[in-house]
């Protein structure tokens, strides 16, 4: 009897294949239909989601915007996670349509194709501004067929080699500037309207621009995928492992001179660390990769842990809810996703009692759960949008895997299909549990100027923001009297602030109006009034009084804006800021960010108060060291000599003060190529070394 070894081998091979397939299937479950996936979404008590759009009308959604007529645009990013050349990818922008008015998309048309690496958009002058690294584009349909026939490059030169770290997250601020995250990536950016201007290096920064005035500049960052701006212009952004940060001091202040000791002017504002409550197990590849890395850390005796679950690792899409379809308690909340944990997180913002920043807290009902979580591992919420109907929309990228392949070991990614789900995508709408969808037909495009002014009072932030944008685009000066009246008489401070910046955008701002804003009952209006007061030299007297404002954020802005002025009274006022708020890092940074606040004169003002340096508190030593650092790095010989004279006064003779001052001078001198050698000769280890150091400095 002959044995059929070939047959047995084939059976064994087939068995091994089936076992391998089954093993992979167990590690990475398959997809669910939109209806089945929605059933796996557990929403906080009192709320529910409904399906707004899904395949075949939308695939791989990463951004959703509604234009002034309520037209719904969605960016699709099917090429992720692979890099493609500009113009050769499959990225699309679709217009979604609800033809029967049931609140669900039943038709879509392609507005633009081959929009490589597109990640965010913003309506502008009948078209769309689109971030599509390495460019920021302008797309517009001019013949009404629903397809873009204008494709203009506005800005170019942004980083493009990693889709998770590119220019993105366009947002129009209350101040008429358009903001974008840049992840701090390097790039020499040019603007098509100013071809003769030198390229701007954006490394380490985010980005902002105004198309109405053809200006652009760097902004504090760096943010990743997710940026949001509240009613008062405070900017927040998301980074994959830090779910919520605030940009505390804008770039234009922190770079008034190049000698700041610190380069970090944003901060995580969560009070609950980076903990999240996911209900799905970590993906097999993530758990295995983290286990390997943690073994390496242990073997190398490193005090480091990589978390595979229950910590934010894929946070994105931070969005402030400013609509009117959900209960008032939701207004101003920030929603953030975590794509790896298949969840939506909610934070309630409130001003810190001790610092000019916000604090992000969990709701009392969400202390041990997320606002939305899913047991479908393909649920990949990436961002949100607030519509003209006032509801919050949640974009679900719906993929089996979310991660760049370069971050995964070869043996693990060999069994992963990174494109699984690229033919899927869902968008959900958040509603009250017992509520029914209430649609909103809008047509701000055909509204008159005065009607747009009326919309500045709307309860839904979408209407207010778009009305302001359209007034900015149209430049219709006939509305100015109505806007001034609105600013003076509206009971809603949000409306008053919109009116203030509409006047700014129409070049109709006056010192009288700005002065009025400084007296407003709302801190957010006063804060922005201070910013606008920088344009008027005679405003410095009023700004000096505002360093005593009961709002810490207003007082901080007063300190920042006073740095735009000169004179003895400014020096004295900034010294008062240090006396009153110097224990706070942000106030110290605000003062020393300006030329006036980093001068000999401010130290002279503090020395005149004999009590100030008699108490050698740690923060005072830090301030003295930072101020000395700047003086040393600047190394203006006349200023440097005067500074040394002040340091020799009796008020600053205490050993700790002398050591702090020399440490700062040494660090600053080391930054200056002309004084590095001198810095190397200084030693601040002991008071004897310090005395010798100051003698050496006086000889030079």
Task: Outline the structure in words.
This protein has 21 helices and 28 strands. It has 700 residues and is an alpha+beta fold. The strands form six sheets. Strands 1, 21, 22, 23, 24 and 25 form a six-stranded antiparallel sheet that branches. Strands 7-8-9-10-13-14 form a six-stranded antiparallel sheet. A hairpin with a 5-residue loop joins strand 26 and strand 27. Helix 7 packs parallel to helix 9, helix 10 runs antiparallel to helix 11 and helix 17 packs parallel to helix 19. The longest helix is centred in the first third of the chain and has 23 residues.
Q: Can you give the helix content as a percent range?
A: 25-40%
C-alpha-based Rg, rounded: 28 Å
- So how many helices? 21
Q: Identify the overall geometry.
A: globular
> Largest beta sheet, briefly?
6 strands, antiparallel
Fraction in beta strands: 15-25%
> Could you tell me how far the N terminus lies from the C terminus, measured between alpha carbons in angstroms?
104 Å
Class per helix and strand makeup = alpha+beta
Q: Which parts are unreliable, with pLDDT below 50 for 5 consecutive residues or more? A: none
Number of strands: 28
Task: Output mean pLDDT.
Answer: 95
Brief account:
The protein has 700 residues and is of the alpha+beta class.
Index terms:
6-stranded antiparallel β-sheet, about 700 residues, 21 helices, 28 strands, globular
Task: Chart the SSEs and their pairings.
Layout: H1 5-27, H2 34-39, E1 41-43, E2 47-54, E3 61-66, E4 72-76, E5 92-97, E6 107-112, E7 118-124, E8 127-132, E9 135-140, E10 150-156, E11 168-172, E12 178-181, E13 188-191, E14 200-201, E15 206-210, E16 215-219, E17 227-229, E18 235-239, E19 242-247, H3 251-254, E20 266-268, H4 284-299, E21 315-320, E22 334-338, E23 343-351, E24 358-361, E25 372-374, E26 381-386, E27 392-396, H5 410-413, E28 426-432, H6 449-455, H7 461-474, H8 480-489, H9 493-505, H10 511-517, H11 523-533, H12 540-545, H13 552-562, H14 568-581, H15 585-592, H16 600-608, H17 618-634, H18 637-647, H19 655-671, H20 676-680, H21 687-699
Antiparallel strand pairs: 1-25, 2-28, 3-4, 4-5, 5-6, 7-8, 8-9, 9-10, 10-13, 11-12, 12-15, 13-14, 15-16, 17-18, 18-19, 19-20, 21-22, 22-23, 23-24, 23-25, 26-27, 27-28
Helix pairs in contact: 6-7, 7-9, 8-9, 9-11, 10-11, 11-13, 13-15, 14-16, 16-18, 17-19, 19-21
